[in-house]
Amino acid sequence: AIDDCFEGAFGEAGARVVIEECMVGEEASVLAICDGKTFVSLPSSQDHKPAFDNDEGPNTGGMGAYSPAPVMTPEITRIVDEKILAPAIRGMQERGTPYIGILYAGLMITDEGPKVVEFNCRMGDPETQAVLPVLESDLFELLLLASEGRLEEHPGLEVSPNPAVCVVLASGGYPGSYEKGREIHGLESLHDDPETTAFHAGTKELNGKIVTAGGRVLGIAGRGETVAAAIERAYQGVSRISFEGMFFRKDIGKKALNR
Predict the structure, then answer these.
(1) pLDDT digits (tens, 9 = 90+) for 30-70
(2) C-alpha closest to that of 246 among 228, 206, 219
(3) Cα(108)–Cα(115) distance, rounded to whole angstroms?
(4) N or C: which end of the chain has fewer CB within 10 A?
(5) CATH number, span 23-257
(6) 3-state class percentages of the chain: helix first, strand second, coil last, to nearest 5
(7) Backbone angles phi and psi of 137, in degrees to 5
(8) What is the rounded CA–CA span in Å between residue 234 and residue 251?
(9) Mean pLDDT, rounded, for 111-125
Protein backbone atom coordinates (compact mmCIF):
# COMPACT_ATOMS: atom_id res chain seq x y z
CA ALA A 1 0.00 0.00 0.00
CA ILE A 2 2.87 2.40 0.78
CA ASP A 3 4.51 1.60 -2.57
CA ASP A 4 1.19 2.38 -4.26
CA CYS A 5 1.12 5.77 -2.50
CA PHE A 6 4.61 6.66 -3.66
CA GLU A 7 3.80 5.52 -7.20
CA GLY A 8 0.79 7.86 -7.32
CA ALA A 9 -1.92 5.21 -7.32
CA PHE A 10 -4.10 7.34 -5.03
CA GLY A 11 -3.31 10.74 -6.51
CA GLU A 12 -3.35 13.65 -4.06
CA ALA A 13 -4.99 11.46 -1.42
CA GLY A 14 -1.77 9.45 -1.23
CA ALA A 15 0.65 12.38 -1.26
CA ARG A 16 1.15 12.20 2.50
CA VAL A 17 1.67 9.06 4.57
CA VAL A 18 0.75 9.05 8.26
CA ILE A 19 2.54 6.50 10.43
CA GLU A 20 0.51 5.42 13.44
CA GLU A 21 0.88 2.96 16.28
CA CYS A 22 -0.23 -0.56 15.37
CA MET A 23 -2.78 -1.50 18.01
CA VAL A 24 -3.29 -5.24 18.46
CA GLY A 25 -6.33 -6.50 20.32
CA GLU A 26 -10.09 -6.75 20.08
CA GLU A 27 -12.27 -3.87 18.95
CA ALA A 28 -15.30 -2.57 20.81
CA SER A 29 -17.52 0.50 20.65
CA VAL A 30 -19.06 2.65 23.35
CA LEU A 31 -21.70 5.33 22.76
CA ALA A 32 -21.97 8.14 25.28
CA ILE A 33 -24.82 10.64 25.55
CA CYS A 34 -23.27 13.99 26.53
CA ASP A 35 -24.75 17.25 27.82
CA GLY A 36 -21.58 19.33 27.64
CA LYS A 37 -20.59 18.66 31.26
CA THR A 38 -21.20 15.01 31.95
CA PHE A 39 -22.21 11.86 30.10
CA VAL A 40 -24.08 8.56 30.30
CA SER A 41 -22.46 5.53 28.66
CA LEU A 42 -24.75 3.15 26.80
CA PRO A 43 -24.11 -0.62 26.70
CA SER A 44 -20.99 -1.60 24.75
CA SER A 45 -21.06 -3.33 21.37
CA GLN A 46 -18.86 -4.95 18.76
CA ASP A 47 -19.43 -4.85 15.02
CA HIS A 48 -18.27 -6.98 12.08
CA LYS A 49 -16.68 -4.93 9.29
CA PRO A 50 -15.62 -7.46 6.59
CA ALA A 51 -18.28 -8.41 4.07
CA PHE A 52 -18.06 -12.17 4.42
CA ASP A 53 -17.95 -14.90 7.06
CA ASN A 54 -14.77 -15.45 9.08
CA ASP A 55 -13.88 -11.77 8.61
CA GLU A 56 -13.01 -12.26 4.96
CA GLY A 57 -13.56 -9.93 2.03
CA PRO A 58 -13.55 -6.14 1.72
CA ASN A 59 -14.41 -3.87 4.62
CA THR A 60 -17.92 -2.46 4.79
CA GLY A 61 -19.82 -0.02 6.95
CA GLY A 62 -20.66 -3.01 9.15
CA MET A 63 -22.41 -6.32 8.51
CA GLY A 64 -23.74 -6.88 12.01
CA ALA A 65 -23.13 -6.29 15.70
CA TYR A 66 -23.88 -7.58 19.16
CA SER A 67 -24.31 -5.95 22.56
CA PRO A 68 -22.89 -6.01 25.12
CA ALA A 69 -19.33 -6.86 24.04
CA PRO A 70 -17.87 -9.49 26.43
CA VAL A 71 -14.40 -7.95 26.02
CA MET A 72 -15.76 -4.88 27.84
CA THR A 73 -15.44 -6.26 31.36
CA PRO A 74 -16.57 -4.12 34.32
CA GLU A 75 -12.95 -3.07 34.89
CA ILE A 76 -12.38 -2.15 31.24
CA THR A 77 -15.67 -0.24 31.25
CA ARG A 78 -14.58 1.71 34.33
CA ILE A 79 -11.27 2.62 32.68
CA VAL A 80 -13.01 3.76 29.50
CA ASP A 81 -15.39 5.98 31.49
CA GLU A 82 -12.74 7.46 33.79
CA LYS A 83 -9.66 7.63 31.54
CA ILE A 84 -11.11 8.17 28.06
CA LEU A 85 -14.65 9.57 28.01
CA ALA A 86 -14.51 11.82 31.08
CA PRO A 87 -11.24 13.56 30.05
CA ALA A 88 -12.54 14.05 26.49
CA ILE A 89 -15.79 15.65 27.69
CA ARG A 90 -13.94 17.76 30.27
CA GLY A 91 -11.34 18.87 27.74
CA MET A 92 -13.94 20.10 25.28
CA GLN A 93 -15.75 21.97 28.04
CA GLU A 94 -12.56 23.62 29.30
CA ARG A 95 -11.60 24.92 25.86
CA GLY A 96 -15.00 26.54 25.44
CA THR A 97 -16.52 24.03 23.04
CA PRO A 98 -18.74 21.84 25.24
CA TYR A 99 -19.96 18.79 23.38
CA ILE A 100 -23.69 18.05 23.43
CA GLY A 101 -24.82 14.94 21.60
CA ILE A 102 -23.67 11.38 20.99
CA LEU A 103 -19.97 10.65 21.27
CA TYR A 104 -18.92 7.38 19.66
CA ALA A 105 -15.68 5.89 20.99
CA GLY A 106 -14.13 3.25 18.75
CA LEU A 107 -11.76 1.30 20.98
CA MET A 108 -9.07 -1.35 20.76
CA ILE A 109 -8.83 -3.48 23.88
CA THR A 110 -5.12 -4.34 24.02
CA ASP A 111 -2.98 -6.17 26.56
CA GLU A 112 -2.09 -2.70 27.87
CA GLY A 113 -5.72 -1.72 28.29
CA PRO A 114 -8.26 0.15 26.13
CA LYS A 115 -6.97 2.58 23.50
CA VAL A 116 -8.88 4.99 21.27
CA VAL A 117 -8.97 4.18 17.57
CA GLU A 118 -11.39 6.97 16.69
CA PHE A 119 -14.06 9.33 17.98
CA ASN A 120 -17.20 10.06 15.97
CA CYS A 121 -19.92 12.63 16.63
CA ARG A 122 -22.75 10.23 15.92
CA MET A 123 -24.21 6.87 16.83
CA GLY A 124 -22.70 3.76 15.26
CA ASP A 125 -24.29 1.75 12.47
CA PRO A 126 -24.96 -1.17 13.00
CA GLU A 127 -23.85 -0.96 16.64
CA THR A 128 -26.85 1.15 17.63
CA GLN A 129 -29.24 -1.48 16.26
CA ALA A 130 -27.77 -3.96 18.76
CA VAL A 131 -27.58 -1.48 21.65
CA LEU A 132 -31.16 -0.18 21.52
CA PRO A 133 -32.84 -3.56 22.19
CA VAL A 134 -30.65 -3.87 25.32
CA LEU A 135 -31.44 -0.35 26.56
CA GLU A 136 -34.48 -0.28 28.86
CA SER A 137 -34.18 3.35 29.95
CA ASP A 138 -36.24 5.89 28.03
CA LEU A 139 -33.95 7.07 25.22
CA PHE A 140 -36.05 10.20 24.65
CA GLU A 141 -35.66 11.19 28.29
CA LEU A 142 -31.88 10.76 28.06
CA LEU A 143 -31.67 12.88 24.92
CA LEU A 144 -33.96 15.56 26.35
CA LEU A 145 -31.92 15.83 29.55
CA ALA A 146 -28.73 16.03 27.50
CA SER A 147 -30.13 18.80 25.29
CA GLU A 148 -31.06 20.78 28.41
CA GLY A 149 -27.76 20.19 30.23
CA ARG A 150 -29.43 18.14 32.97
CA LEU A 151 -27.99 14.64 32.61
CA GLU A 152 -26.93 14.66 36.25
CA GLU A 153 -30.65 14.40 37.08
CA HIS A 154 -30.97 11.03 35.32
CA PRO A 155 -31.64 8.29 37.89
CA GLY A 156 -29.32 5.77 36.26
CA LEU A 157 -29.24 3.60 33.18
CA GLU A 158 -31.54 0.58 33.06
CA VAL A 159 -30.18 -2.24 30.90
CA SER A 160 -31.69 -5.59 30.00
CA PRO A 161 -29.72 -8.64 31.17
CA ASN A 162 -30.47 -10.19 27.78
CA PRO A 163 -27.96 -9.57 24.97
CA ALA A 164 -28.92 -8.58 21.43
CA VAL A 165 -27.55 -9.41 18.00
CA CYS A 166 -28.17 -7.49 14.77
CA VAL A 167 -27.62 -9.01 11.31
CA VAL A 168 -27.35 -6.69 8.30
CA LEU A 169 -29.07 -7.69 5.06
CA ALA A 170 -27.20 -6.24 2.10
CA SER A 171 -27.75 -5.84 -1.62
CA GLY A 172 -25.84 -8.19 -3.90
CA GLY A 173 -22.53 -6.62 -4.92
CA TYR A 174 -22.16 -4.48 -1.78
CA PRO A 175 -19.77 -2.85 -0.84
CA GLY A 176 -19.19 -2.47 -4.58
CA SER A 177 -21.85 -1.59 -7.13
CA TYR A 178 -25.35 -2.94 -6.57
CA GLU A 179 -28.85 -2.65 -7.98
CA LYS A 180 -31.73 -0.83 -6.28
CA GLY A 181 -35.48 -1.11 -6.43
CA ARG A 182 -35.79 -4.79 -5.46
CA GLU A 183 -39.04 -5.50 -3.61
CA ILE A 184 -38.59 -6.64 0.00
CA HIS A 185 -40.82 -9.48 1.19
CA GLY A 186 -41.68 -10.66 4.71
CA LEU A 187 -41.38 -7.52 6.81
CA GLU A 188 -44.93 -7.85 8.09
CA SER A 189 -44.06 -11.25 9.60
CA LEU A 190 -41.89 -9.53 12.22
CA HIS A 191 -44.59 -7.18 13.54
CA ASP A 192 -45.86 -9.54 16.25
CA ASP A 193 -42.47 -10.62 17.62
CA PRO A 194 -41.46 -8.36 20.55
CA GLU A 195 -37.93 -9.82 20.65
CA THR A 196 -37.15 -9.16 16.97
CA THR A 197 -36.86 -5.74 15.33
CA ALA A 198 -36.31 -4.70 11.71
CA PHE A 199 -34.26 -1.51 11.39
CA HIS A 200 -34.60 0.15 7.98
CA ALA A 201 -31.48 1.53 6.30
CA GLY A 202 -31.35 1.43 2.49
CA THR A 203 -35.09 1.17 1.86
CA LYS A 204 -37.83 3.31 0.42
CA GLU A 205 -41.53 3.07 -0.38
CA LEU A 206 -42.37 2.85 -4.06
CA ASN A 207 -45.94 2.42 -5.32
CA GLY A 208 -47.05 1.06 -1.96
CA LYS A 209 -44.20 -1.45 -1.72
CA ILE A 210 -40.96 -1.38 0.30
CA VAL A 211 -37.95 -1.72 -2.01
CA THR A 212 -34.18 -1.65 -1.67
CA ALA A 213 -32.48 1.73 -1.97
CA GLY A 214 -28.95 1.18 -0.69
CA GLY A 215 -26.11 -1.24 -0.05
CA ARG A 216 -27.03 -2.08 3.51
CA VAL A 217 -30.78 -2.55 3.34
CA LEU A 218 -32.04 -3.78 6.73
CA GLY A 219 -30.76 -4.69 10.16
CA ILE A 220 -32.60 -7.55 11.84
CA ALA A 221 -32.03 -7.52 15.60
CA GLY A 222 -32.92 -10.30 18.01
CA ARG A 223 -32.74 -10.43 21.80
CA GLY A 224 -32.43 -13.55 23.94
CA GLU A 225 -31.50 -14.78 27.40
CA THR A 226 -28.04 -15.76 26.10
CA VAL A 227 -25.89 -14.72 23.15
CA ALA A 228 -26.72 -18.03 21.48
CA ALA A 229 -30.45 -17.38 21.93
CA ALA A 230 -30.09 -13.83 20.57
CA ILE A 231 -28.21 -15.16 17.53
CA GLU A 232 -30.95 -17.73 16.91
CA ARG A 233 -33.67 -15.10 17.28
CA ALA A 234 -31.95 -12.70 14.86
CA TYR A 235 -31.42 -15.34 12.19
CA GLN A 236 -34.99 -16.57 12.59
CA GLY A 237 -36.01 -13.03 11.71
CA VAL A 238 -33.59 -12.99 8.78
CA SER A 239 -35.14 -16.21 7.43
CA ARG A 240 -38.49 -14.43 7.05
CA ILE A 241 -37.10 -11.65 4.84
CA SER A 242 -36.20 -11.91 1.18
CA PHE A 243 -35.32 -9.74 -1.79
CA GLU A 244 -33.45 -10.42 -5.00
CA GLY A 245 -29.67 -10.45 -4.46
CA MET A 246 -29.91 -10.39 -0.65
CA PHE A 247 -26.84 -11.57 1.23
CA PHE A 248 -25.69 -11.52 4.85
CA ARG A 249 -23.01 -12.92 7.10
CA LYS A 250 -23.91 -16.16 8.86
CA ASP A 251 -21.50 -15.78 11.78
CA ILE A 252 -22.60 -12.57 13.48
CA GLY A 253 -22.14 -12.86 17.24
CA LYS A 254 -20.11 -16.08 17.10
CA LYS A 255 -17.06 -14.35 18.62
CA ALA A 256 -19.04 -13.66 21.78
CA LEU A 257 -19.82 -17.37 22.17
CA ASN A 258 -16.16 -18.16 22.70
CA ARG A 259 -15.62 -15.76 25.60
Answers:
(1) 999 999 999 999 999 999 999 999 999 999 999 999 999 99
(2) 219
(3) 5
(4) N
(5) 3.30.470.20
(6) 25, 30, 40
(7) -70, 160
(8) 11
(9) 96
